[in-house]
Amino acid sequence: MKVYWLTYLAGFALVMAIGQASEAAVISLDFDDQGPYAGGENIGPLATNSSNWNVTSGASGAVTGLIDDSGSPTAVNVSWASDGTWSNSDGTAVGGDEGIMASGYLDDGGAGVSVTFSNIPFVNYRVYGLLGSDDNAGTVTSQDWDVNGTWVFGGASATTTSIYSSAATTFAMTGNYWSEATTSTPGNYWTFDTSGATLTITGIGANEGSLSGVIIEQIIPEPSTGLLAGLILIGAVSRKPWRS
């Protein structure tokens, strides 16, 4: 058998391995669970199956061995503390597991919210902070959030931004239950890219600072130039006739 056929097989195996490795893992956590979830519904900004969400109850606590979006257990642990818990009308206004997830949250109550994850296995990851409010209509002013020592909205110092008060309001304004909040655009979640085995999230201030959930999404680096060149070469070689 000519080397072309062997090269094709090696290239195919490499492409398959890269395809599998490029599927980012996701860990999703719902604070103050208003469940139980029915399961099998794609919810949240990343449309993750509700069967594979981690859920909590109580103003403070800890959970070990969080599951990922495939339902597989991980070594990731989380602990949290807040002034209390609260909920809004999303449970009925939105309905289903989406509404259950969006309605309950850790309430800052002036004392703030703090969350710590440990044993995160990803080199780099994106954090989604899902925001909560019991205003139920319109927009409210959200405080800033400190993620691993850096302000999400404020850069060198803390600032504030407008957020939609609920998932139902977000849907009425944007046509989606989830929309990213920036310093110039209202939304009901923020994102922040960071790294490290430990993740700390802290929110405290005079404005709304309530957290209904956190999502950690692995960031997969783009294939290197050398790897892409190798794949192109393999593709070119595999076009030659397969002769024995």
Number of strands: 17
Helix content: 10-25%
Global structural class:
alpha+beta
Major sheet strand order = 5-6-9-16-12-13
**Distance N to C terminus:** 4 Å
The total count of helices amounts to 5
H/E topology pattern: HEEEEEEEHHEEEEEEEHEEEH
Number of structurally distinct domains: 2
- Beta-strand level of the residues, as a percent range? 25-35%
Query: How confident is the prediction overall: mean pLDDT?
Result: 85
- How does the major sheet shape up? 6 strands, antiparallel
Q: What does the overall shape look like?
A: globular
What is the radius of gyration? 22 Å
> Which residue ranges are poorly predicted, with pLDDT under 50 across at least 5 consecutive positions?
1-21, 225-234, 236-240
Note the main attributes of this structure.
single chain, 244 residues, alpha+beta, six-stranded antiparallel β-sheet, five-stranded mixed β-sheet, 5 helices, disordered N terminus
Describe the structure.
With 244 residues, the protein is α+β, with helices and mostly antiparallel strands. It has two domains: 1-23 and 221-244; 25-219, no CATH class. It contains five helices and 17 strands. The strands form five sheets. Strands 5-6-9-16-12-13 form a six-stranded antiparallel sheet, with no helix packed on it. Strands 4-1-17-10-15 form a five-stranded mixed sheet, with helices on one face. Strands 2-3 form a two-stranded antiparallel sheet. Strand 2 and strand 3 form a beta hairpin. Helix 1 runs antiparallel to helix 5 (225-238). The model is unreliable at 1-21, 225-234 and 236-240 (pLDDT under 50).
